[in-house]
Design brief:
CATH class: Alpha Beta
Distance between the termini: 36 Å
Mean pLDDT: 93
Low-confidence stretches: none
Helix content: 25-40%
Number of domains: 1
Oligomer: single chain
CATH architecture: 3-Layer(aba) Sandwich
CATH topology: Rossmann fold
CATH superfamily: Nucleoside phosphorylase domain
Number of strands: 9
Structural class: alpha/beta
Shape: globular
Strand content: 15-25%
Bound molecules: hypoxanthine
């Protein structure tokens, strides 16, 4: 067996063992929480919390504000279970792309079918303000690499996966409905990922703006490519934590990004809770 598959199977075996020990049902949905957006996980009923460091071969996050655990949560209204990745590892931390998407792939082996991914991003679109939410309509991979490089793992998908309709229209429409219902305005746009960890220069932001990008960040795209490779239904939400370089009147700081995310926490949690409930009830189908 491919060495990568061996590692993924060791990790999925470990997790499924813990799930079976408690006679829990394996979820079909995964939600990944971005920078500073982790407190949503504090409000949910946790059936299981697995620190990444206990998962065989799993990398661990090194950034502040990323707790680094996998939570099996129960959604109270539908009674269904879902996974939460509370914290993720980033390419800029020095991990390989294989490591960046490791836990996601492990959960794909354990049967997830839907993926909701969230992140904090800089606003490129001049109509966006810090504190806005953006439904990701499409992305631009400007990381200079791709998580599918290397011998294809046929267990997940084909060598040259199509990326035409990566973000589910049905899930985006449902998310818009939730935004209307909760009176949280949601923007929509294109997310561009670079490798980081330096923030962009104003010239880079001008270039990205001309390319059609509305928000910029340092995550999400690798996971989404891997999810689409494996045929998952994907929804993405960016929290606009700051205006991007050159658009912002002040320099960008990680502290500003985290503080603004913390301020939006309540709205974000309400949005996620209702969206997850409806997705688990199959309202996106
Ligand atoms: N650039 C890149 N990543 C980010 C930003 C930004 O301005 N804000 C939050 N994540």
């Amino acid at each position: 067996m491919d060495e990568r598959m061996e590692k993924l199977k060791a990790a999925s075996g470990y997790i499924s063992g813990l799930v079976a020990e408690k006679s829990l049902k394996l979820p079909q949905l995964l939600v990944t929480l971005g920078s500073g957006l982790g407190t949503f996980a504090q409000g949910v009923e946790k059936l299981l919390a697995i620190p990444y460091r206990e998962i065989p071969h799993s990398p661990q996050s090194t950034v502040d504000g990323h707790a680094g655990q996998l939570v099996l949560a129960r959604e109270p209204k539908s009674g269904e279970n879902f996974w939460i990745m509370q914290g993720r590892v980033h390419f800029y931390e020095g991990y390989s792309m294989f490591e960046v998407v490791f836990i996601l792939r492990t959960l794909i082996l354990l049967g997830i079918k839907k993926f909701i991914v969230t992140n904090a991003a800089g606003g490129i679109n001049r109509y966006f303000n810090a504190g806005d939410f953006m439904i990701i309509r499409d992305h631009i991979n400007f990381m200079g690499t791709n998580p599918l490089i290397g011998k294809n793992l046929d267990e997940f998908g084909t060598r040259f996966p199509d990326m035409t309709n990566v973000y589910s229209r049905k899930m985006s429409i449902l998310l818009q409905k939730v935004g209307n219902e909760l009176d949280i305005p949601l923007k929509e746009g294109v997310y561009i990922a670079d490798s980081g960890p330096s923030f962009e220069t104003p010239s880079e932001i001008r270039m990205m703006e001309r390319w059609g990008a509305d928000a910029v960040g340092m995550s999400t795209v690798p996971e989404v490519i891997v999810a689409k490779h494996a045929g998952l239904e994907v929804a993405g939400i960016s929290f606009i934590s700051n205006k991007a370089a050159g658009i912002s009147p002040t320099p960008i700081s990680h502290i500003e990004v985290s503080e603004n995310a913390a301020k939006a926490e309540k709205q974000f949690s309400a949005l996620m809770a209702r969206f997850i409930e409806l997705v688990l009830e199959g309202k996106d189908e």
